Amino acid sequence: xxxxxxxxxxxxxxxxxxxxxxxxxxxxxxxxxxxxxxxxxxxxxxxxxxxxxxxxxxxxxxxxxxxxxxxxxxxxxxxxxxxxxxxxxxxxxxxxxxxxxxxxxxxxxxxxxxxxxxxxxxxxxxxxxxxxx
Length: 133
Fold this sequence. Notes:
This protein has 133 residues and is mainly α. It has helices spanning 2-30, 37-63, 65-88, 92-112.
């Protein structure tokens, strides 16, 4: 299914973009171009943490897609106000790019959908649980 390949690619691309932005913030900080050291450090740390989370989400899409769907949907819904804010602050290019990522992320995560129910009632990869629980 195409959505099963697109969803992890979207998460990986978002992680890569955030990692690059983190590097750019650090470079600005090192070169003394940042107006506030504290704000720049906070932005770099937050961007790096979110990038790591998105990278983990991309891996989870590959290993356990049922567990990745909800976090991916929530993440992209939370980005909608960011898109609106970008458009309102005359950052149409960035708003448009992020809107496209949000749309592709929501559609691919929604289309990936849950897998078929396990007839035994035991989730795949959870053989350590006792039967019947």
